[in-house]
Write a structure and sequence with these properties.
Ferritin; mainly alpha; DUF305_CopM-like; 8 helices; 3% strand; 223 residues; Ferritin-like; DUF305 domain-containing protein
Length: 223
Amino acid sequence: MLVAAATAAACTGGGSPATTEAAATPESVVVQPGRPGEENATVAPEDVAPPRADDEWNRADATFISDMIVHHAQALEMSELAPDRAEDPGVLALAARIYDVQGAEIHGMAGWLQGHDLPVPVELEDGDGSGPRAPVDDAHDHDPEDMPGMLSDAQMAELEAASGTTFDRLYLEGMIQHHQGAVTMSTELAVDGINFRTQELANDIGAGQLAEIGRMQDMLDDL
């Protein structure tokens, strides 16, 4: 009841006008949430940064999308081998799911790049949109093997030459490695990126693939 207190002070002669005004109108502050594990902070309104535009982005966002398309494309290449080589029904089902989910994500990410006049690093198949193919050499600045989790040419050749239980084991081991790399890339974007859409996508990819790593490890233990 600051207003009531100020009125009473004026009627009884208690306190100067300046003191009364300060008590009636406390200084405004803004509570700024801290990072996980850190305390909140209070800042003056004029020190609060203005909200970002929803589609603001930086180089980290664009690099993440471009790299993740190439990363996903290798997962599709691995999964395409399963129908002719896998023995375990669970591995077949997993490969089919990864192919469908990551194929759709590739097209969504390609749309983001195209919407920002940026090159798409793989050629996309027409039709159902689930099968990107060869990387476009002039659209990507990085060696794919430099990305976290990517299988080497030797690993891909070994996977392609395998069949039966050997293929199942190599596929699960390789895809666990691959998923761990995607989780790393997604975690790094949380620090470096600024675009709401890419942050949301990175969170989804990181959480989904982390959960899938646990399931694949269980499958591998059961082989």
